[in-house]
Amino acid sequence: LNKKLFISSDGLIEWDYNGSATDYVTLIVANMNDIDSGWTVDTVDSSDDKTMTFSEEYCLNSLTRIAEEFSMEFEIVGKAISLKNSVGTDTAYTFEYGQDNGLYSLERQQVSNQNIITKCYGFGGDTNIPYDYRSRAKVLVFEDRFLLKNVSLYGTIEGVYRNEDIFPQRTSTLTASSIDFDAGGGTDFNHKTSYIEDSTIDFDINDYLIEGETATIVFKSGDLEGIECEIWKYDHSNKRIYFNPFSDTDGYTLPFYNGGSEIQPEIGDSYTLVNIFNATIIYRHCR
């Protein structure tokens, strides 16, 4: 029970559910049979329906919370799970500890649990994810939702890995840069005529725009390292990107004339495109 994630019938690890005590135990059993056959629902007392929320929990923890939510107690005999108002047999025995009672202290020790995962559900970021991606998954996921490794050695032990910094993206370098500072008083960045090029772009950015998002270029090196600029036009025939200037809250803008010592993108600067969707990029991150 502490090796299997409690997952909804449609494969979610973060989900809400409304049902009776029997419904919940049935779900626990279904999850366990997914990795270890033979689990069954034994005795479950009747109850009203309740709504619970689950998030990256193992079946044992979920079963414990379910029992608490229904004010019941669970019992596992072999692979049969029961959920009752009370389990066990009431006896007349009373156990005490302390001075003159023979037992001076009780201590609970956690059995060592090695950090081994053989079935991993991976989740990346939500950047560059379209609405129709993999059954409407909101973040980057594996095609089968999980990866398996060393199951034959350790059995199935499920776990979750999250990293929002992993998302579909294309990082490359500039092969040309033409920046004009002839707008306004003659020293302002002219976004209408300025552009950068990358001759290695192998898809038309215009075909992969995401509805409700603005395609953006993020500079990874050079004078504009860390700066994000919105793309307002892409000329695929020349692999040419036109972008709006970055403007800070104090009015400082980039690219910047800087008295003739221009702060601007140059050939060889690396960059990433975000807020676009390209099946090739998705494939490279999910294969």
From TrEMBL:
Residue intervals of the Tail spike domain: 25-198
InterPro entries: Tail_dom (IPR010572)
Entry protein name: Tail spike domain-containing protein
Species: marine sediment metagenome
